[in-house]
Structures are given as structure tokens and as C-alpha cells.
Design a protein that fits this description.
- By secondary structure, this protein is mainly α.
- The protein has helices spanning about 15-25, 30-40, 45-60, 65-75, 85-100.
- α2 packs parallel to α4.
Length: about 100
């Protein structure tokens, strides 16, 4: 794609996402997933965010539509778990900043 090309349209595809999700995760219930998608949309989530979150939950063995619903209820809750060690790296950066050192 060049700079003069138009940005491709990203379309909502709830039926396709539900079909993919149920094929990948037969343990999920269609009504639970559809209601979680509606809850996220009602909370103001744009389609790309819903899509990414559902796909992330699909590959999480402990993920479920309930997690999507809960994430859309609590806007302060991160939509994905932090990378392991984030708190250690963050604390080290704060210590360096307070000591006037440059970040690595």
C-alpha cells in the first residue's frame, strides 16, 4: 500500500467472528459470546478493539466470553495481562529516574 492509496475499510463481522470463535473454542456458548460482544459495543468499544480482544481470549486457555464482558464493564482494567516482569522493569526505571540516571 502506498501513501496515496486509501486506507482499507475495516468492517464489523460479528457472525464471522462468532463462527470462528465457536470453531476454535467449542467449549464457548454462542449466546454468551454474542452478549459479551453487545456489552462491549454498548460500553463504547470500537470494532477493532472487540475483534482483537476476542481473538486474544480465543488463544488463552482460560479465556471466555465472560472475560470480554467483564473488561467492557471496567474501563480501568487492562484489556490484556501485563507482560511477566513488567512491575520489576517499571520499578527499576522509576529508581533510575529518581536517581537522575538515564534509562537503559
Amino acid at each position: 500500500m502506498t501513501k496515496t492509496d486509501e486506507v482499507p475499510e475495516i468492517r464489523r463481522a460479528v457472525p464471522a467472528l462468532v463462527a470462528l470463535s465457536l470453531a476454535v473454542r467449542p467449549d464457548w456458548q454462542e449466546t454468551d459470546l454474542r452478549s459479551a460482544i453487545v456489552a462491549a459495543a454498548t460500553a463504547g468499544w470500537e470494532w477493532p478493539r472487540v475483534l482483537v480482544e476476542v481473538v486474544r481470549l480465543l488463544v488463552d486457555p482460560d479465556g471466555s466470553p465472560r472475560d470480554l464482558r467483564e473488561a467492557s464493564r471496567d474501563p480501568l482494567k487492562p484489556s490484556r495481562p501485563p507482560t511477566p516482569g513488567t512491575e520489576v522493569r517499571g520499578a527499576e526505571l522509576v529508581r533510575r529516574a529518581m536517581a537522575g540516571e538515564d534509562a537503559p
